[in-house]
Amino acid sequence: MTAIWSAIGHQLKCPSGPGGRLAGRVMSVLNKQPNHLAIRALSLQPRDTVLELGFGAGGAIKEMAALVPQGLVLGIDQSWDMLRQASRWNKLEIMRERVQLRLGNFSRDAREIREAWRVLKPGGLMAVYATDESTMAHWKFSGPDTHVLFGQDSLCSLLTRGGISEEDISLSEVMLSFGIRGLLAIARKQA
User: Which residue of 46, 85, 99, 147 is 20 to 30 Å from 20, comparing CA positions?
Assistant: First the structure.
């Protein structure tokens, strides 16, 4: 049974093949609520440019594109299958050149946070959602080779290692459906 849970965990980390396409569909349903919370926290304006790292099946990309009708939504994901799925889901906005999706790798350190923070315009916001480690620890598919577990302190530490000062970070606990405990960090870059 352990091999099955490990395979599921790897598909959730970087979906590929038929199992990955199924994982993408499942994640689009399960991540809808936390994605919506993060998007709402950004207070997007019609002309904003938005970047999503790890866009999965592309549901949040579609939601953000609707909120920035004169803006631009950029996305990077490490899965070819998610790139294809999100591209189909957002085909019209890609054709209108309002959405651009790319393939890219992510590491388990703070390099991506640092780079995203560097290019964020003064006054801009960054939202980071993570399912709390107290919830993730109970899921058999989340192992050290597939998932990084975050509590409030470790999420805050990731952001500060990424160059964000603690006074620019607001971290809150959110309760989602099915008793899932999440963490939502909002960082505002000083003007």
Answer: 99
Which is nearest to 123 in space by CA: 34, 37, 45?
45
Give the pLDDT band of residue 1 (cuts 50, 70, 90).
low
User: If pLDDT is split at 50, 70 and 90, which confidence band does 75 have?
Assistant: very high
Give Dmax (Cα) for the chain: 52
Distance in angstroms (rounded) separating the CA atoms of residues 59 and 63? 6
The string of DSSP letters for 140-176 reads TT--TTT---B-HHHHHHHHHHTT--GGGEEEEEEE-
Domain boundaries, the chain: 1-106, 123-191
Q: Tell me the pairing of strands 181-188 and 125-131.
A: antiparallel
Q: What is the DSSP string of 66-92?
A: HH-TTSEEEEEES-HHHHHHHHHHTHH
- Give the right CATH number for 1-106 from 3.30.450.20, 3.20.20.70, 3.60.21.10, 3.40.50.150: 3.40.50.150
